[in-house]
Amino acid sequence: AWNPRAETEQFAPSLVEVIHMMDETVEAFFHLPIPMHQDLIPHLVSGLDQGLQHYISKAKSGC
User: Fold this and answer.
1) Is 36 inside a domain boundary?
2) Alpha helices, DSSP H only, in the chain?
3) How far is the C-alpha of 62 from the C-alpha of 56, rounded, in Å?
4) Is 39 a domain residue?
5) Once rounded to an integer, what is the mean pLDDT over residues 16-27?
6) Residue 12: is its pLDDT beyond 90?
7) DSSP state of 33
8) Containing structural domain, residue 17
9) Which Pfam families does the record cross-reference, listed alphabetically (predicted)?
10) Lowest mean pLDDT among 18-22, 39-43, 45-49, 59-63
11) How many domains does the chain contain in total?
12) Which residues contact 61 (CB under 8 A, 6 or more apart)?
């Protein structure tokens, strides 16, 4: 679950946790009751990429 205080803590979740959250997000996306998954996939991928880049940036800087 998302923790709004995570940005202020001195540690980040492990990469394994981040990948697990991404996997859950993709699975939930494809279970949405919408007819146009294909049109929204680029937005999903972009959001996941931005989140992963942010995590990597924070991890490299020591949070």
Assistant:
1) no
2) 15-30, 37-60
3) 10
4) no
5) 92
6) no
7) S
8) 12-21+47-63
9) TPR_PATROL1
10) 59-63
11) 1
12) none
- Rounded CA gap, 25 and 12, in Å? 19
* CA–CA gap between residue 20 and residue 7 (Å, rounded): 19
pLDDT score recorded for residue 11:
53
What's the mean pLDDT in 34-58? 92
Taking residues 46-57, report their average pLDDT: 93
- The amino acid occupying position 5 is R
Does the residue 55 lie in any domain? yes
Question: Does some domain include residue 35?
Answer: no
Full-prediction pTM beyond 0.90? no
Burial pattern 7-29, b for ≥16 Cβ within 10 A else e, equals eeeeebeeeeebeebbeeeeeeb
Quickly count: other Cβ atoms within 10 Å of residue 44's Cβ: 14
